[in-house]
Amino acid sequence: MAALAFAACSSDETDGGTGGGTGGSTGTSPETPVALKVNVNEIVFNGTTLQVSIDSLDSTPVLVDYVRDPSLDVGGYLAFRVQEDALDRLFIALAKESDDGAVRAVTAADGGQFNRYFAGGVYERTGDFLPPTIGTGPGAGQVSYAGSYAAVTNVRVARGGPTDVAIDTTETGVLVPGQSSRVSGDIFLNVNFLDESINGAIYNRVLIDQSLSLADIVLVRADIAEDGTFLGSAEYDDPSNTVVGTYGGIFGGVDANSVAGLVNLEEFNDDWENEREHGVFVLTQCGPSNTLPICSSVAPFP
């Protein structure tokens, strides 16, 4: 499997790209950090259709229409794809908008070709940051969010396999572009708006196209900025607290009802080399609007 992973293009090459938000913005949404955008210049997602501008040789640096592909959906995240021809890179994107329409996020990646792959994402909020009213007592300001997680990787899907959607080609070997393997999982976040901090974990992770279980990922404590954004480190759940990447996102909606974000993992399997994962999450606050079983274990809002 390690031989199927490719190095990512340096994020330095995309710093200063145009835009970086998704569609439907009021123009006030903070910019997605370069550490999470990576190779993405701009994404326009309105909850139904998707356009992406990403630095690669296969599409000029303008917004390109992606085709909806329900066969690649992951846990409530809508899948889209684009491939110009059989020997051009195949990009897959996973996108979701919150139920209240306040936040949305998209991640995209190709599966690698010519020893490199291109990937990244954006998140966005419509409207202002509206944190919940903070009560009193030992749990003041404590809120939880839970839901599904999805990701794309630079690990290739097997050609001819059940999830292969690449354009058929008679070519083999070095010319053939890879298709990104996807990841599914669950994510849980504990947030304290009094302390202005966030932490959590991604668990039940599976590399879908290989039916391979993956390690849990811990999202270590990070500060929440005045604009409702956050950026922190991701680690393995191991005694060494091994740092494996970055996570970040944005709160939106009334009383910060929703949160959207991205995860950029520089590795996700101790036994492999050069594997990369670009994840996305769009979650609802535990409470009347989110009654997932895990939410029954947390204190009621606020």
Give an overview of the whole structure.
The protein has 302 residues and is an all-beta fold. It has a single domain, classed as Beta Barrel (Porin), CATH 2.40.160. Helix content is 1%, strand content 43%. It has one helix and 18 strands. The protein has one helix at 34-37, and strands at 7-8, 40-45, 50-54, 64-68, 78-82, 91-97, 103-110, 116-117, 119-125, 142-156, 180-192, 197-207, 212-213, 217-223, 229-236, 243-252, 258-265, 277-285. The strands form three sheets. It has an eight-stranded antiparallel beta barrel. A seven-stranded antiparallel sheet has the order 2-3-4-5-6-7-9, with no helix packed on it. A two-stranded parallel sheet has the order 1-8. A hairpin with a 5-residue loop joins strand 14 (217-223) and strand 15 (229-236). The longest helix is centred in the first third of the chain and has 4 residues, at 34-37.
Map the helices and strands.
Layout: E1 7-8, H1 34-37, E2 40-45, E3 50-54, E4 64-68, E5 78-82, E6 91-97, E7 103-110, E8 116-117, E9 119-125, E10 142-156, E11 180-192, E12 197-207, E13 212-213, E14 217-223, E15 229-236, E16 243-252, E17 258-265, E18 277-285
Parallel strand pairs: 1-8
Antiparallel strand pairs: 2-3, 3-4, 4-5, 5-6, 6-7, 7-9, 10-11, 10-18, 11-12, 12-13, 12-14, 14-15, 15-16, 16-17, 17-18
